[in-house]
Amino acid sequence: MTTAASATLVVMMPALNEERTVGAVIDGIPRDIPGVGRVGVIVVDDGSTDATGEIARERGAVVIRHPVRMGLGRSFGDGMERALREGADVIVNIDSDGQFNPADIPELIAPILADEADFVTCTRFQDPARVPEMPAVKKWGNRRMCTIVNFATGTTRLTDVSCGFRAFSREAALRMNLFGRFTYTHESIIDLARKGMRIAEVPLDVRGERKHGRSRMASSVFAYGFRAVAVITRAMCYSRPLAFFGGIALLLVLLGLAQGIWILGHWVRVIIDVGGIPSEATDPKYLPRHRILMIGASLFLTLGFLVGILALVADMLGRQIKVADQLLYFARRGHFARGGDGDAEPVSEPAAGEPSPADLS
Known about the structure:
Blueprint: E1 7-15, H1 22-27, E2 36-46, H2 52-58, E3 62-66, H3 72-85, E4 90-93, H4 105-113, E5 119-123, H5 136-153, E6 166-169, H6 170-175, H7 185-194, E7 199-203, H8 221-239, H9 241-274, H10 288-335, H11 357-360
Parallel strand pairs: 1-2, 1-4, 2-3, 5-7
Antiparallel strand pairs: 4-6, 5-6
């Protein structure tokens, strides 16, 4: 087993047209970190049309090149897979645009090296003195995302779920299964929380706005929010199917019962007053909407019953997914197993003819 003193750190950097900043970020990565014996850098060039890949390679980084843009989620997955192949004990994900200070990496990974956490994320909002300058709508959106993700996990109380400056232990990386092509930030938290991984936050200073170029994630706050909620919804279906579908079923049943109780109460009052079932002839207040409400109540109750059945089926499938996750974890652990003494080879370029992580995904 690898000891903390000989831990291998791999810093992973997704990049898209970041030629003006990628070199400085790589140069700023500390090479002498207490508890770390080896440091490697992997840059995932997601279809850049500038010199991002060439500059990263000149700085000594391994470059995984996507011929076309494949999305941040795919870039993250390919980088994680390559880091595991290289025997990483700790994997740090940092953006290539200079928004985060690579000198903060030792502070970020400290909880993992101390065996206090499996996954650590930088928080921009826990410490009021460190909150960066950014548009109010982005701050509002981040708070709403925190609420949604914390509700989805049921166990976390995170203050920042959208920050891309993160650290993963080898165990967390092996257990993580992500499917989103657009983003990984929220889905990874939900997935790791569901699997009982220890999650921690470290407050760090972060630049609120990019110095160069435009963010491919936040260029449209509303579009980003819509797509992120879609990823979170899918993650909730996957991680908490009974709570997700059961909540929808309960809502439908309550709507049906509310309509039914209102109609029943109205009928009881009219029956007492006129001594008969209400109709246009006996009830001056009788309107066609009563029929619509009756149909709506029946429809909501029927749908609620059907979705409740779906919730039970989804829960049974969820149990099978947990078994599949465990089997996949053991398969990955064997596939990415390190050599006899537990030490990994230094991070290096793939051998000629060796498939890239993109090919293995």
